[in-house]
């Protein structure tokens, strides 16, 4: 396919640098990666990945710990003075 349109994007420089290193290791340019994304959007008629708010979804380890607390296998004793103390008690 003929590439005849330019797209200008504004992105976070840290994200760009990190993604650039990964894409470079894969032998892809930003243009290649963006073209792959657009082709997949066209084919799938949606984003080719699920978009979720990870900050609101518990990690598997957290869910497993909650199950152990509810079953009585583990005890969670607080209060905790910092979130780090809580994470440490959770083994995270």
Describe what this molecule looks like in 3D.
The protein is mostly helical and 92 residues long. The chain folds into two domains: 1-51, Orthogonal Bundle (Arc Repressor Mutant); 54-90, no CATH class. 52% of the residues lie in helices and 0% in strands. It starts with 12 loop residues before the first helix and ends with a helix.
Estimate the strand proportion.
Answer: under 5%
Q: Stretches where pLDDT falls below 50 for ≥5 residues?
A: none
Radius of gyration, CA atoms, in whole angstroms: 21 Å
> Given the structure, what is the number of helices?
4
H-E order = HHHH
What is the arithmetic mean of pLDDT? 86
Which CATH architecture of the largest domain?
Orthogonal Bundle
Number of strands: 0
Relevant CATH superfamily of the largest domain: Met repressor-like
Q: Cα distance, first to last residue? A: 48 Å
Identify the overall geometry.
Answer: elongated
CATH class of the largest domain: Mainly Alpha
Q: Indicate the structural class.
A: mainly alpha
CATH topology of the largest domain: Arc Repressor Mutant
| Tally of structural domains | 2
Instruction: Please bin the fraction of helical residues.
Output: 40-55%
- How would a textbook summarize the main sheet? none
